[in-house]
Amino acid sequence: MVDFYPFLIFWCLLIAQRVVELLIAKKNEKWMLGHGAIEYGQEHYRLMVWMHLLFFLIFFSEKILLNREMSFAWHWLLFVFILAQLVRVWALFSLGKYWNTKIIVLPNANVIRKGPYRLIKHPNYLVVSLELLVIPLIFNAYFTAAIFTILNIGMLSIRIPIEEQALRNHTPYEGAFESCNRFLPKLLNKCDK
């Protein structure tokens, strides 16, 4: 098990990243709720947290117990992972104090139409979907990649409609992107205005 220490360092960095994200989310949640925001999706949020905790435990277990070695394509998979992290940071900074792991909507807030939100509706969900597939594949943890990709599809099929309905109910979300060129951005996209 030559790659145990690189794996352990990578795994610990992932855990640390998640802890930092939760701290940012908690700070933003406090600010938003203090300004009259409304939370949605509490029922599925606990399941989502458990899903992510189990991801890290099963990923670790599969790697160690089944003695999974690094993939021959680990360089490319790591490159995709790093690109996903750049999109995550871009999304986080674009949303600023509105970014959260929960569905929290501030009534009548302006809809964010900058950063990756100019291009796609839910960039952070794209990042998470890529991670749940690519992270285990770096270490040939096929079972983890398959199971959590499927679980994530199920979770997002519940979460995204709730989030979009909450945004429609409390913000000008419906018409916010009418003038945008999502998926075909121009240099001077009207979304930036």
From TrEMBL:
Descriptive protein name: Isoprenylcysteine carboxylmethyltransferase family protein
Keywords: Membrane, Transmembrane, Transmembrane helix
GO molecular-function term, one example from the UniProt record: protein C-terminal S-isoprenylcysteine carboxyl O-methyltransferase activity
Keyword Transmembrane among record annotations: yes
Subcellular location: Membrane
Keyword Membrane attached: yes
Protein topology in the membrane: Multi-pass membrane protein
Transmembrane segments: 6-24, 45-66, 72-93, 125-151
Main localization, broad class: membrane
Annotated Gene Ontology cellular component terms: membrane
Pfam families: ICMT
InterPro entries noted in UniProt: ICMT_MeTrfase, Metal_cation-efflux_comp
